[in-house]
Design brief:
single chain, 299 residues, alpha/beta, six-stranded parallel sheet, globular
Amino acid sequence: MSNTNLPKVAWIGLGIMGSPMAENLIKAGYDVTGFTLEQDKLDRLAAAGGTAVKSIADAVKDADVVVTMVPASPQVEAIAYGADGILENAKSGALLVDMSSITPQTSVDLAKAAKDKGVRVLDAPVSGGEAGAVEAVLSIMVGGEQADFDEAKPLLEALGKTIVLCGPHGSGQTVKAANQLIVAVNIQACAEAVVFLEKSGVDLKAALDVLNGGLAGSTVLTRKKDNFLDRDFKPGFRIDLHHKDMGIVTDAARNVGAALPVGAVVAQLVASLRAQGDGGLDHSALLRSVERLSGEQVA
């Protein structure tokens, strides 16, 4: 049952991450009205106790908080701007929490445009993948005003575990870009280790267990160990999206004059994996790229 004292929420974007996140808000007692492009995702929201509607305008018109979770900057701009978009149809004083991973500049521009419409904005991208979304243990990095962050925090606590205001508008996106840099490099290192271990004839499961107990251990290895062992690359986070994120971090780093030599190499490896047709696979499929480079036939 929804709690009438809680803010009314509009949720735009019900993909791999958005669907379980919206459901966690429903479980926490929020009244959630959702819109997305796929009918089956709208049906899923309705089955979970949310209200599915046919347009962004219908979703946001009565909402106190609008949460958006879409793939990239162009989609954020498409849902935010224009006659049918969020800014034209949300009520004055509403809080827009964009949880998509986009360029810091897009977030800064959105906050500025929203201010003219009386809408407050937080950029609040997340890390933790599908599992983190389902378990409500996401790490949420936020950019925006302290007062808006304080207002959004109880809602964000229904979605994640580590929730931090990182600075002004765009800061959440900058920290998310750094997160994606670390994750991609980490997955690549794990993938190289897996191929090295297997070619050496070592028991891979035993090796990964002992590595994960020492300084080489990581959340990436814990989360992705079974993907490596089983060659199971069902997407929790798609290569296509990590390719987009590596573009964001390399571009943002150039703008501020930061050199990312290893990041640049891994960005190219992600791009090549995508070019080989693996863009729809989980980012742990970087293993396939290392296998190909090591002379293996990859099915």
